[in-house]
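Late entry, written up from scratch paper. The run itself happened at the end of the previous shift, but nothing got recorded in the book at the time, so transcribing now.
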Amino acid sequence: MKRDLTEEETKMPNHRTPRWVKVFGVIGLALVLLLVILHLTGNGFGHGMHTLPSSVNEQGVKQP
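Output as recorded:
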């Protein structure tokens, strides 16, 4: 037997956020926070990321 909906249930639809949306949101926020921390500490992405610091001397290579 089907029960009748209350007045409140008929006025307010169920707008719950699915779990997968919450999980992706948390992961996305964590990645953004990580990138901001890397940027602020100078270890982020950008020019010179793949080059050695000038203080590192390789064996047999003359520095200009």
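DSSP finds two helices and no strands in the chain.
(Scratch paper discarded after transcription.)
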